[in-house]
């Protein structure tokens, strides 16, 4: 069993195709097919199941992938530990919730690119449970989420405090107290969003009934509020950065305490220079 075989196996698992894996690894498909067949013979198990023109992992392949991810991560960490004085380079796979990607991260990403031009950032946005799952499965090196992690394999550091505000169309009557929200409609991210949970807990504690429409896009939420379709609760940084103040009014309530956003990583990855440089820069810039 060779590391090159394991990298081929992981690439096929990630891309679902030998042809696409060959393009990614810059080798011919027949070479990959031969190497994977030899790996399966050594293990005595089929690692893939054909599905149309592509491949999917077999049950044994899924188990093997978990171990392969850990082996490759540790191999990369071992190599990097021998290069401690070298500027961070290579691929840095970063994820973030959409609100952070829209408001807080753009300036940080620009500063990081300027300071570490040899690092290639692969960036994605998603809901926080998905991002944490990707970190746990080594498909992301780090992520920014708005929920404090509890998984034992997740390391984390508080990144910033995100104040929350209520927003309403400029045509809506002035909101003077929480009771003015009774019976109103809100646009919020689907269940599981930490910001939505705060809104629901707050209004429930005051016995104020509200109606929530699920909407998994901050841009769509802002558009609906701007058009007069309803209200929302959003991070203040999004309001400050994107909203035309003439179209939307905002309201702050003491009970809506700021939400800590966290930078997370997999504890099984002992060293990742780009990840560590990113966190250090974020702390220096105080985003």
TrEMBL record:
Residues 1-58 form the HTH lysR-type domain. Keywords: DNA-binding, Transcription, Transcription regulation. The keyword Transcription regulation applies. It comes from the Bacteria. Gene3D superfamilies: 3.40.190.290, Winged helix-like DNA-binding domain superfamily/Winged helix DNA-binding domain. The keyword Transcription regulation applies. Pfam families: HTH_1, LysR_substrate. Belongs to the LysR transcriptional regulatory family. This is LysR family transcriptional regulator.
